[in-house]
Amino acid sequence: MGEIVIDADHVIKKFGQETVLQNVCLKVEKGTICGIIGRNGSGKTVLFKCICGLLQIDGGTIRADRSRIGTIIEEPGFLKQYSGKRNLELLAAMSGREHCSIEEILELVCLGSAGRKKVGKYSMGMKQRLGIAQAIMENQSILILDEPMNGLDNKGVEEIRELFLTLKEQGRTILLASHNRDDIEILCDEVYEMDRGILKKR
Predict the structure, then answer these.
(1) Please, which of 12, 48, 139, 194 could form a disulfide with 38 given CB 3.0 to 4.6 Å?
(2) What is the value of pTM for the model shown?
(3) What are the pLDDT digits (tens) for 171-200?
């Protein structure tokens, strides 16, 4: 086994009396794509938020370099009155980190000239592409993507799958959740299934 860049060990997360993550164990190897499938409410998004540090866990440990994580969790939130390009510029300035050329990133996610359009006029698929652009623009080595294909048409899905495979070839690590079993079969080196907070390897 290669270098482990995400290591969740017997993670427990509770909301009140409800246990939404039950002793979850997950190891993700550098340079691989790991997929998690499961129904809505199964705990996938909660797990992703815990890995990113957005939620505190109630038991177990999580080891991951959060400074190297790019993420899409739930619908990306952007300022509707600004263009896609301007949104990315503002986010880059706020983070203070080095980032790729915004124009190049927009081309990578097939937004191109649409980057000059106000986000308020974007379709759901375009917002999703912009969210992916945000996740990768700082050359983050770990990408945690919750339903990254939401709102994309068939052509868009194919384009983003190709992008993810290219990122994997560059040595990036991707953890993704998807309802689409084709995404999982085409992209993933390892697959886990989550049901009622219990994670099992397929």
Answers:
(1) 194
(2) 0.91
(3) 999 999 988 888 888 999 999 999 999 999
